[in-house]
Amino acid sequence: MTKSPRFQPVQPVRAYQRIVEQIEDALARGDLVPGQRLPSERELVGQFAVSRSTVREALRVLESNGVVRSRPGDPNGPEILPFSSSALRKQVARLARVDELTLSELIGFRMIMDGAAIQVASRLRTAEELAELEATLVAMRTAIDVDFDAFSEADLAFHELIARISRNSLIQTCNEVVRGVVLGLISDKIAHAPNSRALMLESLQHHAEVVDAIRAGNGQAAARLARQNMFDYYAGYVPDSEQETLRALIED
Amino acid sequence: MTKSPRFQPVQPVRAYQRIVEQIEDALARGDLVPGQRLPSERELVGQFAVSRSTVREALRVLESNGVVRSRPGDPNGPEILPFSSSALRKQVARLARVDELTLSELIGFRMIMDGAAIQVASRLRTAEELAELEATLVAMRTAIDVDFDAFSEADLAFHELIARISRNSLIQTCNEVVRGVVLGLISDKIAHAPNSRALMLESLQHHAEVVDAIRAGNGQAAARLARQNMFDYYAGYVPDSEQETLRALIED
DNA sequence: GCGCCGAACTGGTCTGACCAGTGGACTGGG
DNA sequence: CCCAGTCCACTGGTCAGACCAGTTCGGCGC
Questions:
Q1: Distances in Å between the alpha carbon of A115 and those of A148, A231, B15, B86?
Q2: pLDDT given for residue A26 in this prediction
Q3: B 183-212 residues with CB below 8 A of A?
Q4: With an 8 Å Cβ cutoff, are A170 and B64 in contact?
Q5: Residue B177 contacts residue B92 (beta carbons within 8 Å)
Q6: Neighbours of B46 (CB within 10 A)
Q7: What is the per-residue pLDDT across B17-44, written as a single tens digit (0 to 9) for each?
C-alpha cells in the first residue's frame, strides 16, 4: 500500500517572515542569547538584502512576541530579551476578553493548578523550602497592614514559591499568567470591598492551614484546602450559574 | 494617610502601537467581529492619519498575534480572524525551545491537567457524554489498524472530549497546546518505535479503564489511572533524572 | 581632571513608487 | 435571457530615499 503524498497547502511566504524565522532559529540554536544585540536596522538591510521596511516589519513582529526590544538612539542595536511570560499573558488575556473564557473557567483553572502544585510540593519540599514558606506567611501578615496591593504581592510570592517547589516551571508560568488575567478582571472590585481587611486576614488563615498540611506531608489535604481557599476567595465574583462546576472541584 | 501617587514609568508609545490598541479595543468592545473586514491599508492611512509603513507595522503585529490575516490582492481588505490557540501554542513552543521547559515538565503538566479534567468530568458528565466517550474508544480501536497518525488523532479527540465535559475551555486549550508541543518534540520517536502497535493497544486498554472509572463515578480512581497511563506512555522519553518528579504525581 | 558640546549614529516616520496577483465588472456569444 | 471569458482597478508586498528626534561617546575647552 503506497501512502498518498500528503501535500501541504502552499501559502506565500513573505520576506519579513523569513527574517523572523532566521532570527528565531538562531535563538533556538543558541547562536543568539538573551542580552546580545542585533545589528542595527540599516545593517540588517545589508545582511538580509531587503529594504528597511521589510526589516522593520520583522522586528515589529519579534518585538510584539517579546523576543527583542528596540530603543531609539541605542547604538548597540535591538536587544535580545530573556523569555518572559508577558506575551503568553497577552494571549490568554485576549482569550478572556473575547469572552471565550469566563471568570469561573479562569478560577477553576487556578484551583486545579494551584491544588496540584501544592500536592506535589508537599511531597518534594525540603526543610529549607518549608522555612521559606513560613517566612512568606509572615510577610503576608505584615502586608495586610499596608494595603491591598502589598498583600496581593505577598500572596503572589507565596504561590510562586509553591510553583517553584513543585519543580515545574510551566505550572509557575501558567499560574502567573492566569492570576494576572483574573486580577485584571476583578482587582478593582476586591480592592474596594468594604471588608477587605477581614478578607485578607481570612485568606492568610487559609494559607497557614495549607502550610500546616504541607509540613505534615499531607498532600491531599493541602490540595483540598488550597482549592477551598481559592473558591472562598473568589466565589463571590462568579455568577451563581457558574458556581456549580467550581464546587465540583472542591469536593472530591 | 495620603497615598503616594504611584507614577507609572513613562515609555514612548509608537504610532503603530496605538493603531494596534485601537483595533484590539474595537475587537474587545465588539465593534469588530471575526469574519469582518478591515479597510484596505491605503484607506487606513487616511483614517489613522499615518503613513502606510506605520499601518503596515501595526497589521504585521496583529497578524503575528493571529488577530487578522492579509491576503495580497483581496479587494475586501484584511480579515478579522476568529480566535485560535495557534498563537498561544507558538508562545509555549518558544518557551520549550529556549529550553526553559523540559519534556518532563510538559508531561507533568499534562498529567495534572488531564487528571484534573477527568476527575471533574466524572462528576459532571451526562449519560450522552458517557456514550460519546465510549464511541471515541471504538474509534481509537479502529484507528490502530490504520496508522499512528490516525490513532494520535483519535486520542486527541478523546482528550478534547474530556476537556469539554469538564466544562472548562481553558483546560481544553492548554491540553491542546501542550499536547501539540510534546508531540512536536517526540512524535517521530513514537512513530518509529518498533512495537508501536503494542503501545497503541496498551494505551487503548488504559483509556478504557479510565472510562470505566468515569462510568462508576469514581473521579479519584479515574484521575489516578489517567496520570498513570500518561506516565507509562511517555516515561520512556524522559531522562531518568527527571522521572522522580513525575512519579510524585502518580502516587498520592 | 572635569564637564560641556557636537558629530555620528540610532530608531520612528513619511513619501512615493513599482510589481504580481485578485476579483468584480463588463462584454461577447450562446 | 444567461453564461463564460476578458480586462482593469485595486490589493498587499516590497523597495528606495528622505527627514526628525533622541542617544552615545569622544574630543574640546575650562
A1: 24, 11, 43, 27
A2: 92
A3: none
A4: no
A5: yes
A6: 10
A7: 999 999 999 988 889 999 999 999 999 9
Residue with C-alpha cell 540599516?
A42
Most B CBs within 10 Å, among A19, A168, A173, to test the B interface: A168
Residues of B with Cβ-Cβ distance to A12 under 8 angstroms: 72
Of the candidates A158, A135, A150, A133, which has an alpha carbon nearest to the alpha carbon of residue A230?
A158
Averaged pLDDT for residues B5-9: 58
**Chain B CB within 8 Å of residue A10 CB:** no
Q: Give B98-144 pLDDT, tens digit per residue.
A: 667 888 888 999 998 888 889 889 988 999 999 999 999 999 999 99
For residues A247 and A235, what is the distance between their CA atoms, to the nearest angstrom? Answer: 10
**Is B84 near chain A, with CB under 8 Å?**
no
Cell readout for B167 is 466544562
Share of residues in chain B with pLDDT > 70 (%): 94
Counting other chains too, the contacts that B122-129 makes at CB distance below 8 Å and 24 or more residues apart are B122/B213, B122/B214, B122/B217, B122/B218, B122/B219, B122/B222, B122/B223, B123/A248, B123/A251, B123/B217, B123/B219, B124/A245, B124/A248, B124/B165, B124/B166, B124/B167, B125/B165, B125/B214, B129/B161, B129/B165
Cβ proximity of A95 and A142 under 8 Å: no
